[in-house]
Amino acid sequence: MNSKEEVLDAILSQGMLPLFFYEDAEVSLAIIRVMYNAGVRVVEYTNRGKEALSNFYYIKQIVAKEMPGMHLGIGTIKTGLEAEAFVDAGTDFIVSPIIDNEVALVADNYNKLWIPGCMTPTEIHIAQQYRAKLIKIFPANILGPAFIASIKDLFPGQLFIPTGGVEIEAGNIAEWFRSGVCAVGIGSNLISRNVLEKRLYDQLYNDTLKALELVQMSK
Length: 219
Known about the structure:
alpha/beta
């Protein structure tokens, strides 16, 4: 079982958190396998469709057998019931677009890293009351790196990860890290609908390598 500290260390070391959802479980597994082969060791599968729970359970069983060192978490968790269901399915960590006290409680009860989403200094303050070690800045494309740079001194030592709109482009990733983030969340700019539907696994492999390299250069 992965502890909060192990998962957090893996995210900080990787410097990015790929995230996606797809209806087809086999394609979802193939996407994770491609990223694993490119060097990814932490992935967020998002709870964005009715197939998410059954897909996650299936994928987690195979990841545990075939992909040593891989941490697979669940995102878009908004209720305690959702959190409980995915803890039962084996999630290594929980990501939310919001702050919810029941989700925080479930994560704490099971010693899972919880990454709540915040958009304002007040929300960041509330997340800190729940002892959130890592806070997701969302939607990052609306707030931008300047937001992080402006508020980071208000919350010394707090770890931030922006999600939404982070691009696989040297200037963009470098700007986020200069603003004070510890990692970046990358969704459709890495795992696009086109990649998913056309099974563009070679493209995903190469883009993942590029993203990992850019992140390590920017940290």
